[in-house]
Amino acid sequence: MRKSKSINITDNKFFRLAKWSILGLAVFLFSTILVLNTFFFSQVVDWSLSRIYKKNKIKIEYTSASGNLFTGKINFDGLRITRSNNDYTNFDLKIKQAKLNVHYFSFINKPIRFKYVTVENVRGEMIRVKTKPWYLRKKNNFIIDSFSVRDAKLKLTSQYLKTEKKSIDIVIKRCETSPLRRKYVVLDLFFKSNLEGTINGQSVKISSKRDNGNRRTIWKIKNLDVSTLRVIVNRRLQWLKSGTLFVDVDNTWKRDTASAFDSRWRFRISNPVAEIPENTSKFKALLLKPVVKYLDSGKEEYDLSFTLKLEDEKFKGHASLDAANLWKSVFTGLTKKVAKSSITGMKEKYKDYKGKLKGLIN
After folding, report:
1. What is the pLDDT of residues 46-66, one digit of tens each?
2. Band of the pLDDT at 118, cuts 50, 70, 90?
3. What CA–CA distance (Å, rounded) separates 39 from 223?
4. Does the structure show a pLDDT above 80 at 181?
5. Alpha carbon of 345 to those of 71, 293, 338, 348, 352: distances in Å?
6. 142 and 182 Cβ atoms separated by less than 8 Å
7. What is the mean pLDDT of residues 282-290?
8. Per-residue confidence (pLDDT) for residue 133, from 0 to 100
9. Percent above pLDDT 90 for the chain
């Protein structure tokens, strides 16, 4: 009986041709990147930045750039990022030094991913012309494994506000976030970061740490003037005209991967002045009446605490705390707490008056 002859794949012409084709393509790509990296690095960077301007109208200029296209590392000196004539947000930022490391293959298999992005010595201004409707927000996605900012001084102006004060000065001594995700940028920056800085000269600190798979984030804000806070959350705080706030927030995830977390808020309000705003609906005015009465009772300081249950999905796709409805939840909780304290106070006064009347009758 005739034995079948075994086929050696290495001797097969097709596989040999494929092997040499792949090797040739790899050599070609390597040579191309080598040439681009050696002789045309700046041109490649300029082309990439021109694509950003064409898509988002964000102009990026720099004094010098260096790096390695093989590893995806790019360093910028004298960076300037500007956008003007936008209907919603404009900015002019000058950055002394910026470093980034991008995963090139993520441009093919999105989201775009960066190993790290670090910026130092940032100066500039951001202007909010008006709030952007959720249905117009772009869904461009990115993930930065490690994001850090050092020595940033910014002026935030909200032109659409009807208040006298429209600008605040923000100083960031340091900010470290790992990771920073476009879909959860608010959650990562404010609830999963370490930040130290000031708002209009008053201390702001966010500390976040993991312990045995759990996560705990603490905010501490001292001596914050209400007029400053109104620039950020005007719509949610119209009933509080003046005063000084001390804010302590304690957020706890039982596990670091949990989708919901407990958020405990403590407000200490010194020398508050509250009133019901004009054009307030009758129903809302009815709710605010005990709040205003309680805060105008003559005490120098009020200590109010409450707990919120927050979910990660509330922050998905939003670029600000206001857009994520966090302030709505917080100040609704604060209003309820003040109203409850007001009712409790009225009950205590009623008991006191009842006791005095009984003594008088006796």
Report:
1. 888 898 888 888 999 999 998
2. very high
3. 55
4. yes
5. 65, 11, 10, 5, 11
6. yes
7. 76
8. 62
9. 20
Q: How many angstroms separate the CA atoms of 343 and 290, rounded?
A: 8
Task: Indicate the DSSP class of residue 131.
Answer: P
pLDDT of residue 259: 67
What is the secondary structure of 159-228 as a DSSP string? TT--SS--EEEEEEEEEEES-EEGGGHHHHHHHSEEEEEEETTEEEEEEEEEETTEEEEEEEEEEEEHHH
Question: What are the b/e assignments for 19-57, b being 16+ CB within 10 Å?
Answer: eeeeeeeeeeeeeeeeeeeeeebeebbeeebeeeeeeee
Q: Is 44 in contact with 67 (CB distance < 8 Å)?
A: no
The answer to whether 108 and 77 are in contact (CB under 8 A) is no
71 to 101, 179, 279: CA distances (angstroms): 7, 20, 59
Tokens of 312: 């990660």
**One-letter identity of residue 251:** N
**pLDDT of 188 above 80:** yes
- The partner residues of 64 in beta bridges, in order of sequence, read 77
3-state secondary structure of 255: coil
Among 47, 49, 41, smallest CA distance to 68 is for 41
Amino acid at site 120: E
Structure tokens at 8: 């050696």
Contact 193, 205 (CB under 8 A): no
Pick from 123, 115, 227, 102: nearest CA to 171: 123
What is the residue type of 125? E
Q: What is each CA distance from 343 to 42, 145, 216, 268, in whole angstroms?
A: 68, 49, 33, 19
For residues 143 and 167, the answer to whether their CB atoms sit within 8 Å is no
pLDDT, averaged across the chain: 77
User: Measuring CA to CA, how many Å separate 8 from each of 5, 16, 21, 335?
Assistant: 10, 11, 19, 80
pLDDT of 332: 63
| 31, containing H or E segment | helix 13-39
The strand pair at 260-274 and 301-311 is best described as: antiparallel
